[in-house]
Amino acid sequence: MDRIVMKFGGTSVATLERIRNVVARVKRETEAGNEVAVVVSAMAGVTNQLVEWCQNLSPLHDAREYDTVVSTGEQVTTGLLAIALQEAGVDARSWQGWQIPVRTDPAHGKARIEAIQGAELVRRMRSGQVAVVAGFQGIGADNRITTLGRGGSDTSAVALAAALRADRCDIYTDVDGVYTTDPRIVAKARKLSKIAYEEMLELASVGAKVLQTRSVELAMKERVRVQVLSSFADLPGTLVVDEDEIVEKEIVTGIAYTRDDAKVTVRRVPDRPGIAAAVFGALAAEHVNVDMIVQNIAADGTTDMTFTVAQADLPRARAALDRAQTQIGFAEILTDPDVAKISVVGVGMRSHPGVANTMFRTLAERGINIQVISTSEIKVSVLIAAEYTELAVRALHTAYGLDGT
Ligand code: ADP
Ligand code: ASP
Ligand code: MG
């Protein structure tokens, strides 16, 4: 008998028919004698709509009220699934983040889970009741609802699995595993039977949204056994494992892309000590994360600084920099949301030189200009014009020998 956390994403609960499909999967586990907690997302499209409403009313809306609004999608799904389970003869009860409670830090809109009180859930699961838990949400120290950032239900599931000391955390989604790249844009993408935590972490952090980055971070830290699998087909999925469990290490394991970033260029910044601290300090004070950064050398005592931020943070970033303009003393800010970040990831890179060069050459052969470059031990990322995203990902997938048949 195992204790399992099963997580179902938006597409997997998009309609009542799909919710009934979830019931069948849950029932299979309970009938096998397992204790089950289910974490659900909002029905597909719902969170996008809620976010759009907030942005429409006010681009610089209060993050606490944003959380009040966008957390509601998950509440609906928990209730619906609990009703559907009960209808099928399965004892079930819904739980919102505040009811468990799932305690988070106060960073509204991108809160981190700090603690989950699992005792009551465990007591009920032991007596055969399925816990249907709202993903994506928690409660801050001020007793207000928080949300964990887009895709955060994955993190809710892994955190719950850790808190409940579950034997497994199964992430059911609309693809049947983790692929060498997004199978929706590269038909020749290959499913990986296993992927190392570190690679999955890096892929997630550069845009492979199949798992939220923090969920992988947490799984790695808390040693949660995570599996990604299809909610529609009975196929083996992808296990996230320790690096030494992977026998055949590829140089490049996967390629990811994101169009969610925007490029910001601060023009003619005085070239003196403390300037980077002033620019990025102003952004940090507004909780804006900065990703790729380049700074040029200039002859006339000023320089240009280019960096990327999440597109959703662009209004906040602009406002923060505008406020600091006289203090920092730059000439103007240019922004470009039509960019894509393409990244190649693989633990094999540690021991194989030339990975970056293959990337640059492949893009050059397609006439794709590289705007910014950043690297880590197991990753190379480039920023390019968004219109070339698919072309770049496909070309790189072939260039690194990842194409399946
Ligand atoms: P859910 O709603 O179940 O959380 P998501 O949309 O968040 O699902 O994540 C699944 C999607 O991730 C897939 O539909 C796929 O398009 C995308 N994806 C991106 N990169 C990959 C990858 N390397 N392997 C699998 N899926 C990927
Ligand atoms: N519903 C939330 C989102 O769309 C959380 C999730 O699905 O993981 O981002
Ligand atoms: Mg997701």
Tag the structure with descriptive keywords:
405 residues; alpha/beta; Carbamate kinase; eight-stranded mixed sheet; four-stranded antiparallel sheet; 13 helices; 20 strands; 26% strand; binds adenosine-5'-diphosphate; binds aspartic acid; binds magnesium ion
What does this structure look like?
- The protein contains 13 helices and 20 strands.
- Strand 4 and strand 5 form a beta hairpin.
- It has a domain of 172 residues: Acetylglutamate kinase-like (Carbamate kinase).
- The radius of gyration is 22 Å and the shape is globular.
- Helices cover 34% and strands 26% of the residues.
- An 8-stranded mixed beta sheet has the order 3-6-2-1-9-11-12-10, sandwiched between helices. Strands 13-18-20-19 form a 4-stranded antiparallel beta sheet, with helices on both faces. Strands 15-16-14-17 form a 4-stranded antiparallel beta sheet, covered by helices on one side.
- The model has no long low-confidence stretch (mean pLDDT 96).
- By secondary structure, it is of the alpha/beta class.
- Helix 7 packs antiparallel against helix 8.
- Adenosine-5'-diphosphate binds next to loops.
